[in-house]
């Protein structure tokens, strides 16, 4: 460690002692050390790796049944009861048979139990992802020569299709029926999306999901919810219209609904109105009485059971033509490797699925971890969610992620660990093995009602837009643009538009940050913005400039314009004119022209004096997060121009990273203890002002002596 002599001479106050930083390793040595650390193997490191990949092996040893078992069992039972109707309902969104949603819920709960780091997140089918899967499935069905995903004409159709999927063995659409090909597309899409997420986790790219801001995710959820609501209206009304694809799907669907409104099934309309009224009323009652209710009301399950009984004994399908769920087989279908040809076809469609699933899963895991006082690992969450997609893709499942509504219910019912996921999987397994056929007469309009009511929370977020606008107009613009693009164009384009707008808003905030002149607060050593506060005391002859943002290639011109506007001096222009006049003066001395008045060639000093009423400029670099090469060059040019005019440029409150950049860029000397550096950099604005004042007095004393 070293003490700068210049620092000691300038005052008797505290002296900063600079630490000697260790010599940095070269790239080759650093890579060699990291490779050796990664490849070193021992039983302890192997066990640590297993614990990192399977966190359940770590927390299960510390599990306390007396404290956690009751809450885990209760929350697992409640989530399992909620999962069953949601799984059957969300199959409408994905364009698949209900049995595949039950498979997905079962495997996702078991895998996340082993690999997840969050104690409270519920991983399973998610309405937004189901919508995106359904759009890809419909497109591929049309390209393969099938029609869009059908509703199923009667109770006997679905079972034969699932049996065909179990018996089919070839890779093409010619060897299986429509439902068989649909699940092949969904499984291929799921495997590719899971591979993306696993690779992101291995490469430690968990931070990428943080670039999907909360306004972007909320706007995306709002726009996708409008799309989901529109897609379910045909089931609520009982009309037969095609599932539209591509941009403008929402508008096209509404036009088709208006044209087919006269063909609505009266039985489905009455059933939908009744179920919506009951579900919405129960949800409002649960929200108002949630502090009194220890366990949420399983309204969805009760409505589905009641509707199934009414439909069965009233024979609504046979008498009124109401569309029903159809046969749901029991047991498991033999595993199958997803089709590589289909995987290549959906390789781009899987990108937004992987990003959205990762962003929602990580954000929910971190939210519950903060509220309950523990930590999660973003990269391990990526691995967990990715494996929840990769492994089940071989068992006829589709894309999953964390779901907010079920996670909130899980927390409210006393969940303490992911053991509750095993209980939920057991409930789903019971339905798969025995209870699934009981839902064959369930009307599809009832399932659509369950989906629509589940969108209530996302649709309510529109009420947050005015508050968001007052807080940050840029974030509100991202919200509105993302939601509008998702609803009016497509979900994938909306997500892309939201990401681009978020990045542009971030760049815009750094491109034109706030710039201000500072003045002293009374006799203190603190300085504030003269445009914001009154009664500040300006320092005579010293301009204190604050630039509240980084200085880089995109805002260097704005930095110079702001400095010129606030100080009233364009240093580059005046210094250039001074240099030109000096050249003209030398030329006139060498080659005088008789009878020609060249003007006041020696009046440069007077020009500079009248233009610059100050002798020093102090730049407050505290808000300056970083500099790039263009920023360093800008400061070098500014110091040169000010120096030509006799003005001193001083920097205050530079962070260590900014100081290092200035040193590497040549603005400072190579040695950290250089006395010249101590004359340019100061640890506070007040010390820089005092230094400028002292230099002015010393210069005045020298001039008077001469």
Automatic annotation (TrEMBL):
CDD domains reported for this sequence: STAS_SulP_like_sulfate_transporter (cd07042)
InterPro entries listed in its UniProt record: SLC26A/SulP_dom, SLC26A/SulP_fam, STAS_dom, STAS_dom_sf
Membrane topology, from the record: Multi-pass membrane protein
Residue intervals of the STAS domain: 540-692
Predominant place of localization: membrane
Name the record gives this protein: Sulfate anion transporter 1 isoform X1
Location of the protein in the cell: Membrane
PANTHER family linked: SULFATE TRANSPORTER
Organism: Zalophus californianus
A Pfam entry, by short name: Sulfate_transp
Keyword match Nucleotidyltransferase: no
Keywords assigned by UniProt, alphabetized: Membrane, Transmembrane, Transmembrane helix
GO CC, alphabetical: membrane
Transmembrane segments: 68-88, 121-137, 181-203, 342-362, 382-405, 417-435, 479-504
BP terms from Gene Ontology: transmembrane transport
Entry keyword Ribonucleoprotein: no
Source species, domain of life: Eukaryota
């Amino acid at each position: 460690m070293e003490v700068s002599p210049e620092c000691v001479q300038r005052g008797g106050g505290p002296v900063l002692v600079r630490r000697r930083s260790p010599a940095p390793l070269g790239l080759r040595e650093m890579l060699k050390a990291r490779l050796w650390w990664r490849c070193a193997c021992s039983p302890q490191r192997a066990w640590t790796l297993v614990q990192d990949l399977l966190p359940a092996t770590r927390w299960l040893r510390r599990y306390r049944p007396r404290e956690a078992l009751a809450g885990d069992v209760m929350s697992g039972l409640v989530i399992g009861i909620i999962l069953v109707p949601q799984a059957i309902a969300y199959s409408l969104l994905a364009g698949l048979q209900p049995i595949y949603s039950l498979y997905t819920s079962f495997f996702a709960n078991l895998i996340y139990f082993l690999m997840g780091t969050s104690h409270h997140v519920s991983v399973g089918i998610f309405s937004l992802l189901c919508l995106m899967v359904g759009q890809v499935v419909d497109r591929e069905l049309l390209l393969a020569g099938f029609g869009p995903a059908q509703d199923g004409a009667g109770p006997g159709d679905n079972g034969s299709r699932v049996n065909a999927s179990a018996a089919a063995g070839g890779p093409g659409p010619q060897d299986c029926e429509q439902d068989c090909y649909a699940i092949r597309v969904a499984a291929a899409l799921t495997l590719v999306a899971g591979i993306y997420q696993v690779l992101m986790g291995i490469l430690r790219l968990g931070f990428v999901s943080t670039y999907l801001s909360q306004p972007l995710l909320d706007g995306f959820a709002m726009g996708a919810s409008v799309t989901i609501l529109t897609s379910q209206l045909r089931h609520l009304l009982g009309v037969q219209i095609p599932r539209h694809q591509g941009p403008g799907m929402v508008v096209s669907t509404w036009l088709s609904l208006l044209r087919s409104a006269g063909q609505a099934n009266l039985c489905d309309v009455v059933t939908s109105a009744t179920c919506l009224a009951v579900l919405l009323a129960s949800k409002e009652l649960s929200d108002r009485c949630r502090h009194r209710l220890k366990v949420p009301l399983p309204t969805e399950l009760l409505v589905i059971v009641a509707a199934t009984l009414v439909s069965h004994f009233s024979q609504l399908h046979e008498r009124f033509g109401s569309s029903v769920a159809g046969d749901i087989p029991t047991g498991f279908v033999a595993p199958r490797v997803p089709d590589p040809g289909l995987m290549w076809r959906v390789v781009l469609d899987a990108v937004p699925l992987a990003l959205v699933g990762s962003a929602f899963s990580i954000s929910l895991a971190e939210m519950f971890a903060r509220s309950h006082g523990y930590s999660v690992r973003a990269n391990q969450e990526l691995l967990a969610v990715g494996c929840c997609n990769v492994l089940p893709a071989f068992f006829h499942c589709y894309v999953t992620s964390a779901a907010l509504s079920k996670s909130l219910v899980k927390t409210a019912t006393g969940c303490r660990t992911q053991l509750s996921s095993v209980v939920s999987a057991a409930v789903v397994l019971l339905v798969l093995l025995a209870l699934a056929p009981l839902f064959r007469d369930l009307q599809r309009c009832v399932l659509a009602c369950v989906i629509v009511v589940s969108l209530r929370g996302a649709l309510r977020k529109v009420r947050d837009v005015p508050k968001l606008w007052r807080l940050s107009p840029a974030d509100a613009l991202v919200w509105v643009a993302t939601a509008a693009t998702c609803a009016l164009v497509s979900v994938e384009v909306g997500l892309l538009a939201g990401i681009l707008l978020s990045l542009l808003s971030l760049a815009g905030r750094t491109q034109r940050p706030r710039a201000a002149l500072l003045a002293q607060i009374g006799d203190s050593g603190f300085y504030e913005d003269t445009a914001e506060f009154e009664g500040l005391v300006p320092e005579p002859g010293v301009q204190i400039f604050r630039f509240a943002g980084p200085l880089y290639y995109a805002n260097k011109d704005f930095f110079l314009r702001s400095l010129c506007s606030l100080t009233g001096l364009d240093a580059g222009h005046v210094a250039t004119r001074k240099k030109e006049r000096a050249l003209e003066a030398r030329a006139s001395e060498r080659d005088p022209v008789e009878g020609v008045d060249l003007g006041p060639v020696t009046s440069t000093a007077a020009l500079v004096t009248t233009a610059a009423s100050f002798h020093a400029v102090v730049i407050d670099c505290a808000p300056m997060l970083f500099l790039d090469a263009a920023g360093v060059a800008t400061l070098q040019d500014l110091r040169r121009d000010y120096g030509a005019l006799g003005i001193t440029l001083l920097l205050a409150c530079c962070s260590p990273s900014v100081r290092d950049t200035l040193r590497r860029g040549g603005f400072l000397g190579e040695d950290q203890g250089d006395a010249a550096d101590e004359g340019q950099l100061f640890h506070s604005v007040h010390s820089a002002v005092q230094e400028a004042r002292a230099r002015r007095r010393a210069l005045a004393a020298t001039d008077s002596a001469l």
